[in-house]
Amino acid sequence: MTYQPGPYLTPDYMLPYWEPVYYQQEYQMYSMMTPEYYPSLWTPLVHQSNSESQEDSGVVSEDDEKEEEVLEKGSCPPPTLTVHQANEILGTPIPERCPDTKKIANRITEWLKTSKTHQKEFSENVIGRSQGTLSSILKTPKPWKAMHCGREVFIRMYNFMRISEEERKQIMNLQLNLPKSTRQPRVSNRRFTRVQKECLDGLVERIEKPSKEIKRVISRELGLPESTVHNYFMNARRKLKYD
């Protein structure tokens, strides 16, 4: 093993162990101050690693060639995303300030055109909705504050446009569409009985905007859910507005 003097084995610190060289202002170590006699004052040299020895010898390993190839391309390839990671990225909460839903929709529309991605593929793989729903959202996006449900779609689209193009391609290939068992069941159109229809039409003519208490009474008397009563009055007001 090869040795070198320790950090304090110098004339400035260990002068008694050094002897002057005559006619010169220099010192040399006593002949007995060797690693064999005083190993604590010496530091063993660390052997060179295999990689260092390969560099010195000019031999390039296969790993080094791969690394150089990646560096020549400009950047390392992104890691492969799993379904869980992709869903976490797309579901990340967005800033508290109200996002511009129209701007998000325009960016998605532009990306679909430039990437030549079909709406059906995007709607099923990214937002878990039908093509018709996506088409409607992109054409007439509702303001963020006006949405009680459906914000998740814009959250996923917002996060989708924040990631790199390579990550978008990976997500599109992962098929993140939700299984049918986890999707919300579609509510079928309710058919009212003749009595229910006549009562509701008569109440709409008398009361344009009933209070919550009145809606609750109507719901109980007609045997209808409160949400159904609320929607009936709301649709009736819209119809009168356009007529």
UniProtKB/TrEMBL annotation:
Residues 61-70 have a biased composition (Acidic residues). It is found in: Nucleus. Its main location: nucleus. Keywords: DNA-binding, Homeobox, Nucleus, Transcription, Transcription regulation. One of its GO terms (cellular component) is nucleus. Residues 49-78 are annotated as: Disordered. One of its GO terms (molecular function) is DNA-binding transcription factor activity, RNA polymerase II-specific. PANTHER family: HOMEOBOX PROTEIN CEH-21-RELATED, TRANSCRIPTION FACTOR ONECUT. Belongs to the CUT homeobox family. This is One cut domain family member. The lineage of its organism: Eukaryota, Metazoa, Ecdysozoa, Nematoda, Chromadorea.
